Amino acid sequence: MPEIVIAERAGVGADGHPRPTEDHVVVLDNAVLLLDGATSSDPSLPPGGWYAERLARRLADDLRTTPEADLTDVLTTAIAVVTAENELRPQRSPSSTVAAVRWLDDRVDALVLADSPVIGFGGFGTDGVDVVSDDRLAGLRRRGMLQTGADVRRRRNAHDGFWVAEADPGAAAHSVRRSWPRADVDAVLLASDGVSIGVDQYTLFDWREVLATTRAKGPDAVLDAVRTAEKQDPDGDRWPRPKRHDDQALVLVDFAACSRV
Questions:
Q1: CB-CB contact of 13 with 245 (8 Å)
Q2: What is the DSSP secondary structure assignment for residue 47, as one 8-state letter?
Q3: Would you give the DSSP letter of residue 157?
Q4: What is the DSSP track for 238-257?
Q5: φ and ψ at residue 132, rounded to 5 degrees
Q6: Distance CA 157, CA 153 (A)
Q7: Distance CA 118, CA 130 (A)
Q8: What strands, in cross-sheet order, belong to the sheet with 176-181?
């Protein structure tokens, strides 16, 4: 069993006021799930955290029952069940990212849907780091194609847009997948975008430095570094962003911990 450490911290709403986190982390016997509910600008819809919590619970129940099932199939079923149980409609429903890591005797599997990356470390790739990320949403933002709520709704779960867990079970088929030999995996990180922004946009550190800091000082030290940078740019002049502080979640699944003891 790998060692698992978690840090979570609530951000602020679009109005700048504190509110409960919309990130949800679930630890199972052989898997970790991280879901980041999208903040909705439509007060008539349930919040993203409401949806993320329900989807996370269904995913966890299904993985406990079938721990070796295909992750895409599990996600497809979970979205379908949550959609039916809550009478959700595509384009008129809350949404959530999904990041999942599952370990079996022979391999470690990763799944990412939308912008909560999974980062594998070990004996693979050119430098021993494999970033499993879904860059479609970030690409649309860079090109200025998500300026309004209507833009987001039109591009959500569309072939010219981005894919996210919402009320369309077919979105699961567009997730980004990876499998690594179990013996080659040293550690895996899962991060919500409130943490990965420190790598991708603020360039405070790279993923190897995130791993080293998490092991040496704990994951809260990484969250602290991101928050400190944001406090130094309170109005988003250097780093434009919709909220001063996003929710943060960081999970380390450390397969090498036992060998270091």
A1: no
A2: P
A3: T
A4: SS--SSSS--EEEEEEETTH
A5: -95, 100
A6: 9
A7: 8
A8: 23-27, 31-36, 98-103, 107-113, 176-181
Q: Any idea which residue has 């099932």 for tokens?
A: 69
pLDDT of residue 204: 98
Helix axes 48-65, 71-85, angle to 10 degrees: 130
The model carries a pTM of 0.95
For residue 99, what are its two tokens? 């990041």
Q: How many Å apart are CA 62 and CA 227, to the nearest integer?
A: 35
CB count in 10 Å sphere of residue 260? 8
Name the residue type at position 37.
G
SS3 for 38?
Answer: coil
Query: pLDDT per residue over 145-168, tens digit each?
Result: 887 777 888 899 999 999 999 999
Beta-ladder partners of 9: 248
Can you tell me the mean pLDDT for 57-80? Answer: 98
Number of CB atoms found within 10 A of residue 71's CB: 21
Distance of CA 100 to the CA centre of its chain: 8
The stretches of 106-161 forming alpha helices (DSSP H) are 136-142, 149-155
Q: Across the chain, which distance is largest between two alpha carbons, in Å? A: 53
Q: What span, in angstroms and rounded, lies between the C-alpha atoms of 108 and 47?
A: 32
Nearest CA to 163 among 210, 115, 195? 115
pLDDT digits (tens, 9 = 90+) for 187-228: 999 999 999 999 999 999 999 999 999 999 999 999 999 999
Burial 207-235 (b: 16+ CB within 10 A, else e): beebbebbbeeebbebbbbbbebbeeeee
Q: What are the two backbone dihedrals, phi and then psi, of residue 34, each rounded to the nearest 5 degrees?
A: -135, 120
